[in-house]
From TrEMBL, chain B:
This is Metal ABC transporter permease. PANTHER family: ABC-TRANSPORTER METAL-BINDING PROTEIN, METAL TRANSPORT SYSTEM MEMBRANE PROTEIN CT_069-RELATED. Pfam families: ABC-3 (PF00950), Fe_dep_repr_C (PF02742). It is a multi-pass membrane protein. It is found in: Cell membrane. The chain crosses the membrane at residues 12-37, 43-62, 69-88, 100-119, 146-164, 189-220, 232-254, 260-278. It comes from Algoriphagus limi. Residues 356-425 form the Iron dependent repressor metal binding and dimerisation domain. Keywords: Cell membrane, Membrane, Transmembrane, Transmembrane helix, Transport. Belongs to the ABC-3 integral membrane protein family.
């Protein structure tokens, strides 16, 4: 029953890749207090996906990725514009932006329903279980393995190189944007770069895990790690470990309960998060308990 | 046109049901959403709308069919848990609020998806109805739904209107409420229940994702037109009604078009118009005012510079000399000169710019305000003479005649400013 066959390996491997890409970006998103912006982007890419689909005629075209990337950046700019120029508070700007773009996406799907084989469900939920049968087959008819796995590998390479190349800039602008600007870091360009990486990751993963689960992988592992440590390096390491654990446990739990793998991954992430909340609270209680006593004594 | 008349005469009972339903739940959501927008918790509604998915699924599993009582009950339970967790995590961890909302939202939704696939695999034929619940289907509102959900919406609106004062205190100053002895915890509880109810009802018309728009957008748009809470609520309701009716109309004339997304697009359009064109807070209005102010300061600078040259015994300045004083604003200076010439404040003679009589009066006034303010800062605020210029540079454009008179009497009509320069008056001449 509990098997570790090739399919299981492929799914867990791909899920881990996606979880790692999302987690890496998510750490910086969280530090910039942009967790909900990530959520907004993952919904806002929908019209880009549809337009890319219409242009290329397939869900797998490069146009889809480009379209989604453009929409992701557009969403970021729109949120910024609403906040700075129209002076709408940040959370409302996020809400207005992603609902408008998502609505336009659904309208486009409905308008071109006969040409676009897409629906809200597939964008929101995704299904990683079909991964092993969705193969990348060359023109010569040779199978190179699951298509989404290759997308995830490419995605991770891009995310990794983005973060290693701009590590210092990302770090500085995440903690103190103004200082970053003062020493000459193009903060808004770095920000846009991060946002386009997030939108690209959303698109390349939505078929597998769905938009909302991309958000979960962006947000939950970094938030969990943040409960344990404040050091950036440890934060990243812990996020990666949690991401991989989530993929592994999520797969087998879904297998046991015969349920959605992506949904189970998020459930596992949620469980790890809440257990961490409990443990860290217990830990801090002990610490603060003695400190308070000492304070009470001295005063 | 025929369609238009047929639709808006509401002869067709099913059209009337849909319009009435979407209007009622639109108003309910707009009211609740406006309050949570003012409370800076706009995205809490988004979190709730995702978080009720597991509750809906559990209710469905328990009832074995699409029973509204079980489903609404389950939704309220899981929405309530999510709301509680959000505030509990905020008090007990160091995570920022947006991270907490994103965590709660996605974890609950993920659990919901697990339940959903379990239901899917059980092969229950009522599954389609459940999907409608999640993605919304306004057109699907039938008479029975209208009684339940329309009734609930009216209930929400009623409670909000009835407890307006309490919620106002909750949103604007909860500590004040506590000091008054109001049970703020209970008021917040009632308010949270209202949000959850509004979301549960609204989702069926518009879907999980777009629910946030029904809550946030009307209030955010209305906020640009007014500072008064009652007007704000009425406007938000009006925006919700307009978008509800036209959204339904569009999907009526173009049957392949979904209602909910069109409602959101129209709402966003209204919001965009508000952001751009609303008086006082709108972008264009603020831009226009800023431009007007900058133009005025620019003109003041030109007049002042020529006057100062006159003080030094140079009765006119050339354009080059003027732009030399403000090297970064050449074009603006040229425009101001043109403007001032038109107003008759200065005249140009053989490339030399000179003040006319009214121009000189105005220039004197500006210089006088500048120097009076410098003196005031120096004498009353004990600021050193070499530190007063910056502030006077700003205030010279802003001080009103009333303030000027007050400064004059306070300082007893002084003759010299802290830099020993004459404070010019209308009757003396240089």
């Amino acid at each position: 029953m509990m098997t570790f066959d090739q399919n299981a390996f492929l799914i867990i491997f791909t899920a881990s890749l996606i979880a790692i890409s999302c987690g890496l970006l998510g750490v910086f998103m969280m530090l910039r207090k942009m967790a909900m912006t990530g959520d907004a982007i993952s919904h806002a890419v929908l019209p880009g996906i549809v337009i890319g689909f219409l242009v290329s005629g397939t869900q797998r075209g490069l146009e889809v990725i480009v379209g989604a990337g453009i929409l992701g950046i557009l969403a970021t700019l729109m949120i910024d514009w609403l906040r700075k120029k129209a002076r709408v508070q940040l959370d409302a700007s996020i809400g207005i932006t992603f609902t408008l773009l998502f609505a336009i996406g659904i309208i486009l799907i409905s308008a071109f329903a006969y040409r676009v084989d897409l629906d809200q469900e597939c964008v929101l939920y995704g299904e990683i279980a079909y991964l092993p049968i969705d193969l990348w087959i060359t023109d010569a008819g040779k199978s190179l393995g699951p298509r989404i796995m290759w997308l995830a590998i490419l995605n991770l390479i891009l995310v990794l190189s983005f973060i290693t190349l701009f590590y210092k800039e990302l770090k500085l602008t995440s903690f103190d944007e103004k200082f970053g600007v003062v020493i000459g870091i193009p903060a808004s360009a770095i920000n846009l770069g991060l946002m386009s990486m997030v939108s690209y990751t959303t698109v390349s993963s939505f078929e597998a895990v769905g938009a909302i689960l991309v958000v979960a992988l962006l947000v939950v592992p970094p938030a969990t790690a943040f409960l344990w440590t404040r050091q950036l390096r440890q934060l990243i390491q812990l996020t990666l470990i949690i991401g991989i654990a989530v993929s592994l446990l999520g797969y087998y739990l879904a297998y046991l309960l015969d349920s959605s793998i992506a949904g189970m991954m998020v459930t596992v992430a949620g469980i790890i998060f809440f257990v961490s909340v409990g443990l860290t609270r217990y830990r801090s209680k002990i610490k603060f308990g003695t400190q308070n006593e000492a304070k009470a004594f001295s005063s | 046109m025929e369609d238009f008349l047929y639709f808006f005469s509401f002869q067709d009972a099913s059209i009337a049901f849909v319009v009435l339903g979407i209007t009622l739940l639109g108003i309910g959501s707009a009211f609740v959403g406006t309050f949570s927008f003012l409370d800076n918790k706009a995205l809490l509604g988004d979190a709730i709308s995702h978080a009720i998915l597991p509750g809906i699924c559990l209710g469905f599993m328990l009832a074995g069919e699409k029973n509204p009582f079980f489903i609404v009950g389950g939704a309220i339970a899981s929405g309530g848990l999510a709301t509680y967790l959000t505030s509990w995590l905020k008090d007990n961890t160091k995570l920022s609020e947006d991270s907490i909302i994103a965590v709660v939202l996605s974890v609950f939704f993920g659990i919901g998806i697990v339940f959903l696939t379990i239901i899917q695999k059980s092969g229950n034929p009522e599954m389609a109805g459940l999907n409608q619940f999640i993605f919304g289907n306004a057109i699907g509102i039938v008479e029975r739904d209208l009684w339940i959900y329309g009734g609930l919406s009216i209930g929400i609106i009623g409670v909000l209107v009835f407890m307006l004062k309490e919620f106002q205190i909750l949103v604007f100053n909860p500590d004040f409420g506590k000091a008054l002895g109001l049970p703020m915890h209970h008021i917040r509880l009632v308010f949270n229940i209202l949000i959850i109810l509004a979301v549960v009802i609204g989702i069926q018309a518009i879907g999980v994702v777009l629910m946030a728009a029904l809550l946030i957008t009307p209030g955010a748009a209305a906020r640009f037109w007014t500072d008064r809470l009652k007007t704000l609520l009425i406007l938000a309701a009006v925006f919700a009604i307009i978008s509800g009716i036209f959204g339904t109309y569009i999907s009526y004339t173009l049957p392949q078009m979904p209602t909910g997304p069109w409602v959101v697009v129209i709402l966003s359009f209204i919001a965009l118009l508000s952001f751009l064109f609303a008086p006082k807070k709108g972008i264009l209005f603020r831009f226009y005012h800023r431009k007007k102010y900058i133009d005025k300061t620019q003109r003041d600078h030109v007049l002042k510079s020529i006057y100062k040259a006159e003080e030094l015994g140079k009765p006119a300045l050339s354009l080059e000399e003027l732009t030399h004083i403000y090297p970064h604003q050449k074009q603006a200076i040229k425009n101001s000169i043109k403007e001032l010439e038109k107003e008759g404040q200065l005249f140009i003679n053989q490339n030399l710019i000179k003040l006319t009589k009214p121009g000189k009066m105005e220039a004197k006034r500006i210089v006088r305000l500048h120097r009076l303010w410098e003196l005031y800062l120096n004498e009353y605020m004990n600021i050193a003479p070499d530190h007063v210029h910056e502030s006077a540079e700003k205030l010279e454009h802003l001080l009103t005649p009333e303030l000027e008179a007050l400064l004059e009497t306070r300082l007893n009509f002084p003759r010299l400013d802290p830099h020993q320069e004459t404070i010019p008056r209308d009757h003396d001449d240089i």
